[in-house]
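Z., the sequence and structure:
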Amino acid sequence: MAARSRRARPRRRGTAEAIALKRHAPAADRNCLPIARELARDLPGRGTILEVASGTGQHAVTFARAFKRLIWQPSDCSGDALASIAAWRADSECTNLLSPLALDAASPEWPVEKVDAMVCINMVHISAPETTEGLFAGAGRLLAAGDPLILYGPFFEEGVDTASSNIAFDESLRARDASWGLRRVEWVDSLARRFSFIRARRAQLPANNILLVYRKEA
Protein backbone atom coordinates (compact mmCIF):
# COMPACT_ATOMS: atom_id res chain seq x y z
CA MET A 1 0.00 0.00 0.00
CA ALA A 2 1.34 3.40 -0.93
CA ALA A 3 2.30 5.59 1.98
CA ARG A 4 -0.09 8.43 2.67
CA SER A 5 1.38 11.77 1.74
CA ARG A 6 1.51 14.42 4.40
CA ARG A 7 1.46 18.12 3.73
CA ALA A 8 4.69 19.64 4.90
CA ARG A 9 4.41 22.10 7.73
CA PRO A 10 6.16 25.48 7.48
CA ARG A 11 9.59 25.32 9.11
CA ARG A 12 9.72 27.18 12.40
CA ARG A 13 12.47 29.76 12.62
CA GLY A 14 14.60 30.24 15.67
CA THR A 15 13.12 32.77 18.08
CA ALA A 16 15.87 35.35 17.58
CA GLU A 17 15.69 35.06 13.79
CA ALA A 18 11.89 35.35 13.74
CA ILE A 19 11.94 38.41 16.00
CA ALA A 20 14.53 40.06 13.77
CA LEU A 21 12.54 39.51 10.58
CA LYS A 22 9.01 40.05 11.83
CA ARG A 23 7.52 43.47 11.28
CA HIS A 24 4.58 44.57 13.41
CA ALA A 25 1.82 47.07 12.67
CA PRO A 26 -0.43 47.90 15.66
CA ALA A 27 -3.24 48.85 13.26
CA ALA A 28 -3.19 45.32 11.86
CA ASP A 29 -3.82 43.93 15.34
CA ARG A 30 -6.87 46.17 15.63
CA ASN A 31 -8.39 45.65 12.19
CA CYS A 32 -7.71 41.95 11.51
CA LEU A 33 -10.85 40.56 13.12
CA PRO A 34 -13.31 43.21 11.84
CA ILE A 35 -11.97 42.64 8.31
CA ALA A 36 -12.18 38.86 8.73
CA ARG A 37 -15.84 39.14 9.74
CA GLU A 38 -16.60 41.06 6.55
CA LEU A 39 -14.51 38.74 4.36
CA ALA A 40 -16.60 35.81 5.58
CA ARG A 41 -19.54 37.28 3.68
CA ASP A 42 -17.78 37.36 0.31
CA LEU A 43 -15.00 34.77 0.12
CA PRO A 44 -15.80 31.38 -1.44
CA GLY A 45 -16.12 28.29 0.72
CA ARG A 46 -13.06 26.72 -0.88
CA GLY A 47 -10.28 27.77 -3.21
CA THR A 48 -7.15 29.92 -3.31
CA ILE A 49 -7.17 33.53 -2.16
CA LEU A 50 -4.45 35.91 -3.35
CA GLU A 51 -3.64 38.70 -0.92
CA VAL A 52 -1.88 41.54 -2.76
CA ALA A 53 0.45 43.78 -0.71
CA SER A 54 0.37 41.62 2.42
CA GLY A 55 2.69 43.97 4.31
CA THR A 56 3.84 42.61 7.66
CA GLY A 57 2.06 39.26 7.25
CA GLN A 58 -0.19 39.69 10.30
CA HIS A 59 -3.36 39.73 8.20
CA ALA A 60 -2.31 36.63 6.28
CA VAL A 61 -1.87 34.60 9.46
CA THR A 62 -5.19 35.79 10.94
CA PHE A 63 -7.11 35.03 7.74
CA ALA A 64 -5.48 31.63 7.22
CA ARG A 65 -6.54 30.69 10.74
CA ALA A 66 -10.04 32.09 10.26
CA PHE A 67 -10.66 30.39 6.89
CA LYS A 68 -9.16 26.94 7.27
CA ARG A 69 -10.80 25.56 4.10
CA LEU A 70 -9.15 28.24 1.97
CA ILE A 71 -5.57 28.33 0.69
CA TRP A 72 -4.15 31.77 1.52
CA GLN A 73 -1.47 33.11 -0.84
CA PRO A 74 0.26 36.25 0.50
CA SER A 75 2.41 38.51 -1.69
CA ASP A 76 4.29 41.79 -1.67
CA CYS A 77 6.78 43.74 -3.78
CA SER A 78 9.05 44.63 -0.84
CA GLY A 79 11.88 42.35 0.19
CA ASP A 80 11.54 43.35 3.85
CA ALA A 81 7.81 42.63 3.73
CA LEU A 82 8.38 39.22 2.14
CA ALA A 83 10.86 38.32 4.89
CA SER A 84 8.39 39.46 7.56
CA ILE A 85 5.52 37.49 6.00
CA ALA A 86 7.69 34.38 5.85
CA ALA A 87 8.63 34.79 9.52
CA TRP A 88 5.00 35.19 10.62
CA ARG A 89 4.08 32.17 8.49
CA ALA A 90 6.82 30.00 9.99
CA ASP A 91 5.70 30.76 13.53
CA SER A 92 2.01 30.28 12.71
CA GLU A 93 2.26 26.65 11.58
CA CYS A 94 -0.76 27.28 9.34
CA THR A 95 -0.70 24.54 6.72
CA ASN A 96 -3.08 26.51 4.45
CA LEU A 97 -0.81 29.59 4.38
CA LEU A 98 1.56 29.49 1.41
CA SER A 99 5.03 31.02 1.08
CA PRO A 100 4.80 34.69 0.03
CA LEU A 101 5.18 35.61 -3.63
CA ALA A 102 7.18 38.58 -4.92
CA LEU A 103 4.43 40.46 -6.76
CA ASP A 104 4.33 44.04 -8.00
CA ALA A 105 0.69 44.90 -8.67
CA ALA A 106 1.71 47.51 -11.25
CA SER A 107 3.57 44.92 -13.33
CA PRO A 108 1.82 43.28 -16.31
CA GLU A 109 3.39 39.94 -15.33
CA TRP A 110 2.29 38.20 -12.13
CA PRO A 111 3.73 34.93 -10.75
CA VAL A 112 0.27 33.34 -10.49
CA GLU A 113 -2.27 32.40 -13.15
CA LYS A 114 -5.57 31.62 -11.43
CA VAL A 115 -7.14 32.27 -8.03
CA ASP A 116 -10.69 32.25 -6.67
CA ALA A 117 -10.66 35.66 -4.97
CA MET A 118 -8.30 38.57 -4.30
CA VAL A 119 -7.88 40.73 -1.21
CA CYS A 120 -5.91 43.98 -1.03
CA ILE A 121 -5.60 45.85 2.26
CA ASN A 122 -4.18 49.35 2.70
CA MET A 123 -2.37 49.53 -0.63
CA VAL A 124 -4.45 51.85 -2.80
CA HIS A 125 -3.59 55.02 -0.84
CA ILE A 126 0.09 54.12 -0.30
CA SER A 127 0.96 53.66 -3.96
CA ALA A 128 0.69 55.48 -7.27
CA PRO A 129 -2.63 55.33 -9.18
CA GLU A 130 -0.95 53.08 -11.76
CA THR A 131 -0.60 50.41 -9.08
CA THR A 132 -4.37 50.28 -8.54
CA GLU A 133 -4.83 50.12 -12.30
CA GLY A 134 -2.44 47.17 -12.37
CA LEU A 135 -4.37 45.55 -9.52
CA PHE A 136 -7.63 45.59 -11.50
CA ALA A 137 -5.85 44.48 -14.67
CA GLY A 138 -4.34 41.55 -12.79
CA ALA A 139 -7.69 40.68 -11.23
CA GLY A 140 -9.21 40.68 -14.70
CA ARG A 141 -6.67 38.06 -15.79
CA LEU A 142 -6.85 35.83 -12.72
CA LEU A 143 -10.50 35.88 -11.66
CA ALA A 144 -13.51 34.21 -13.26
CA ALA A 145 -16.92 35.82 -13.64
CA GLY A 146 -18.49 36.45 -10.25
CA ASP A 147 -15.23 36.16 -8.30
CA PRO A 148 -14.50 39.00 -5.83
CA LEU A 149 -11.73 41.56 -5.59
CA ILE A 150 -11.95 43.05 -2.09
CA LEU A 151 -10.30 46.35 -1.11
CA TYR A 152 -9.92 47.83 2.36
CA GLY A 153 -8.65 51.18 3.55
CA PRO A 154 -9.53 54.87 3.91
CA PHE A 155 -11.19 56.58 0.94
CA PHE A 156 -12.91 59.82 0.03
CA GLU A 157 -16.57 59.43 -0.89
CA GLU A 158 -19.02 61.83 -2.47
CA GLY A 159 -21.80 62.71 -0.03
CA VAL A 160 -19.92 61.27 2.96
CA ASP A 161 -18.22 63.56 5.46
CA THR A 162 -14.49 62.89 5.66
CA ALA A 163 -13.06 62.44 9.16
CA SER A 164 -10.47 65.03 10.10
CA SER A 165 -8.00 62.22 10.82
CA ASN A 166 -8.35 60.97 7.23
CA ILE A 167 -7.79 64.47 5.86
CA ALA A 168 -4.62 64.80 7.94
CA PHE A 169 -3.52 61.31 6.86
CA ASP A 170 -4.02 62.19 3.21
CA GLU A 171 -1.93 65.35 3.61
CA SER A 172 0.87 63.41 5.31
CA LEU A 173 0.91 60.80 2.55
CA ARG A 174 1.10 63.41 -0.21
CA ALA A 175 3.92 65.15 1.65
CA ARG A 176 5.89 61.89 1.59
CA ASP A 177 5.11 61.10 -2.06
CA ALA A 178 3.05 63.27 -4.40
CA SER A 179 1.62 60.17 -6.12
CA TRP A 180 0.19 58.79 -2.86
CA GLY A 181 -3.01 59.78 -1.10
CA LEU A 182 -6.56 58.71 -0.39
CA ARG A 183 -8.51 57.92 -3.56
CA ARG A 184 -12.11 58.75 -4.30
CA VAL A 185 -14.41 55.73 -4.30
CA GLU A 186 -15.96 57.09 -7.50
CA TRP A 187 -12.56 56.91 -9.20
CA VAL A 188 -12.09 53.31 -8.06
CA ASP A 189 -15.59 52.42 -9.29
CA SER A 190 -14.82 53.93 -12.69
CA LEU A 191 -11.50 52.10 -12.88
CA ALA A 192 -13.21 48.85 -11.95
CA ARG A 193 -15.69 49.20 -14.80
CA ARG A 194 -12.80 49.57 -17.27
CA PHE A 195 -11.73 46.05 -16.33
CA SER A 196 -15.26 44.57 -16.22
CA PHE A 197 -15.74 44.74 -12.46
CA ILE A 198 -18.77 46.15 -10.70
CA ARG A 199 -19.01 47.15 -7.05
CA ALA A 200 -21.25 44.69 -5.24
CA ARG A 201 -20.96 45.89 -1.66
CA ARG A 202 -19.61 48.57 0.66
CA ALA A 203 -19.08 48.06 4.38
CA GLN A 204 -18.15 50.61 7.03
CA LEU A 205 -15.38 49.47 9.35
CA PRO A 206 -13.76 50.99 12.46
CA ALA A 207 -11.31 53.89 12.38
CA ASN A 208 -12.92 55.52 9.32
CA ASN A 209 -12.02 52.71 6.93
CA ILE A 210 -14.29 50.97 4.45
CA LEU A 211 -14.36 47.67 2.63
CA LEU A 212 -15.27 47.61 -1.07
CA VAL A 213 -16.24 44.39 -2.83
CA TYR A 214 -15.97 44.24 -6.62
CA ARG A 215 -17.08 41.26 -8.67
CA LYS A 216 -16.04 40.40 -12.18
CA GLU A 217 -18.86 40.59 -14.69
CA ALA A 218 -19.59 37.79 -17.13
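The CA atoms of residues 186 and 193 lie 11 Å apart. The chain is about 35% helix and 20% strand.

Let me know what you think.
H.
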